[in-house]
Amino acid sequence: MGKIVSSQYSLTLLHPSGIVDGVQLRTNETSSNGQSMHGWRLLARWLEPGLGVKRWLLLMVFGTALIGLGVAVILLDFYWANPNSPLLSVLSLRVIPHTIRSILLGGAGTGILVYAVFRLNRALLAPYVRPGKPVVEVVANHRRLGRGPKIVAIGGGTGLSTLLRGLKAHTANLTAIVSVADDGGSSGRLRRSLNLPPPGDIRACLAALSADEGLLTKLFQYRFREGEELEGHSFGNLFIAALSGVTGSFQEGVLDAGRVLGIRGQVLPSTAQDIVLVADKEMAPTGKAVRVEGESRITEGIGRICRVQIEPSDPRAYPLALQAILNADMIVIGPGSLFTSVLPNLLIPEIPSAIQASKAFKVFVCNVATQLGETDHLDCCDHLAAIEAHIGSILVDLVVVNNNLQINLPDGIEAVDPTLDGSCPVPQYAADLIDPTNPTRHNERVLAEILIALLEERTGPLELLPVDGNGSNGYL
Questions:
Q1: Ramachandran assignment for 31, one of left (phi > 0), alpha (psi -120 to 50 degrees), beta (any other)
Q2: Is this model's pTM higher than 0.85 or not?
Q3: What secondary structure does DSSP assign to 171-240, as a single string?
């Protein structure tokens, strides 16, 4: 394991063992003295820079001092009017010298004020704090995430939700722009029966961005396994459909669902119009071209996907999605199904135009494994070539690609070749991105840390937590 020389990320190749991992160190304080020190450290954290507490605390002290001064003026009149009153002598501590009297009264007042503020904060923040987690930790984390970079992620399916689940630990300024071309499963049934955009991918992203993936999030992802009408439906899809009916708008329904889940960021459809994904497939061995309509049918049949398009071909992009792209610090395209999740967003003409116009750092995250019936035998350069063939431009400044090819995958699926021979038309950043529990997917934490570190390398230091670990990465 290489030696860590700084608490900040470095993209310099230091040693050959893997990506830098964040480590949170904890000490086991069992003695009463240790617990006392821990309590004092928590109190001291309220005075750390960036929490936005000190300025208001000083203003409150100043206001309290003014109130005390006003009360003192009134009491002084009574004091001089009745200088020999035994009660006033006791209350004013006349027998104690002035200096000691000032210290005692000031100290008592400060202690009471601090205790009152502490209890008031606990009372106000109680609904938002999990048991066993100090209030200051919650406030500090909220402030840190609120100052995080503005990141837009474009895609759909499992890949996008995996990315979001990792990024939400670094920033609350996240925007997921999701494809609405899905026409299969629960989403397709609701789309046909209620004339709504498909909520499935949006639901998955809402769940991924939830600040606390507890019971409510699990309920949102629950899929009914029986019942003639309910079987196959996701509760979250039904919930979004119900909110759309209550609010009168699918977009408002999605926003309200995000509020219910307490998500970090926002999830937006790429368009509010009804679109259909169409693919041209080349049938082997005859080479005959066949047109397939509907996202769910595209990957079912045999044949190689040559091209996809949407109908209508020029839908209007969702305005808030365009605004998020133009204001972003970083735009991440992928991971996700190339032809059925990523490209449907980019085929909306205003989306790639906004990406090109944005000053954000633009990154394409290449899939770690091929997808049956969609990207069979495609390498990293083939993924970029497909985007360029459909859009006319690659759009991105950098490609993040997995270089760990020694993985066990199901039959018919293979690791995407990173093509690190210099043939890629844009710079590449290679690292071990494999999720050890599911080798067809990215490791959400590692991927998010790499993206944040790359953004920091480009724009300057961001507010990141100290890290430790091991790593072997670099531009190629």
A1: beta
A2: no
A3: -S-EEEEE-----SHHHHHHHHHH-----HHHHHHHHHHBSS-SHHHHHHH-B--S-TTTTT-BHHHHHH
Domain boundaries, the chain: 46-144, 149-475
Tens-digit pLDDT profile for residues 420-434: 888 888 999 999 999
Tokens at 41, concatenated: 């450290």
End-to-end CA distance of the chain: 23
From the number of C-beta atoms within 10 Å of its C-beta (0-12, 13-18, 19+), residue 348 rates as: buried
Residue matched to tokens 């003409």: 349
Find out whether 303 and 284 touch, Cβ atoms under 8 Å.
Answer: yes
What whole-number distance in Å separates Cα of residue 196 and Cα of residue 198?
6
Report which residue type is found at 345.
N
Distance CA 462, CA 161 (A): 23
Residue 414 main-chain phi, psi, to 5 deg: -135, 155
The yes-or-no verdict on residue 21 having pLDDT over 50 is no
Query: 64-93, pLDDT tens digit by residue?
Result: 888 888 887 887 777 777 777 777 677 667
pLDDT-derived band at 1 (thresholds 50, 70, 90) equals: very low
Query: What distance in Å separates the CA atoms of residue 178 and residue 155, rounded to the nearest whole number?
Result: 5
Give how far Cα 242 sits from Cα of 218, 235, 245, Å: 18, 10, 5
CATH of 149-475, one of 3.10.20.30, 3.40.50.10680, 3.30.420.40, 3.40.920.10: 3.40.50.10680
